[in-house]
Design brief:
Number of domains: 2
Low-confidence stretches: none
CATH class of the largest domain: Mainly Beta
Helix content: 40-55%
Shape: elongated
Strand content: 25-35%
Largest sheet: 4 strands, antiparallel
Mean pLDDT: 92
CATH architecture of the largest domain: Roll
Length: about 160
Amino acid sequence: MGRYIDEILQPGEKVLYSTNAHWMFYLPAIAAWIVALILLILSRATTTEGVALLCLSAAAVVAIAALYWSVKAWFHRWTTETDVTNLRVIHKTGFITRKTFEMSLDKVESVDVNQSILGRILNYGDVTILGVGEGKQTISSIASPLAFRNSITAR
């Protein structure tokens, strides 16, 4: 399965910038994997059989949750595309049900970037594109939002 952008490019249109959902979507999974590892170590460190079994069971439950969150984050990143071409801005999410928006660069009035402190540190944020007659579109938690904005506004 190819990229969505490759399927919809018009003749003479070329991709100027591509970005994706930020890896921060993996943070819940990473935290759960750490908790599962700590519980596993605790189950091996304790001498009481009941406590060891409880820690081992809790580690298994947390590991299953971590696996679910890992697959969910990977799938979200895999099915999300955000591109700027020489003619338009394109954003696509979803696999079976697809949600897209496209806005001509000529119709872009302003591009706003919203980053939290953690977003500034990890280089992710939300980008809001205001279009003339097109409305407002917000792209959440993308990697390198300032570079994305610059690729839209610099012509």
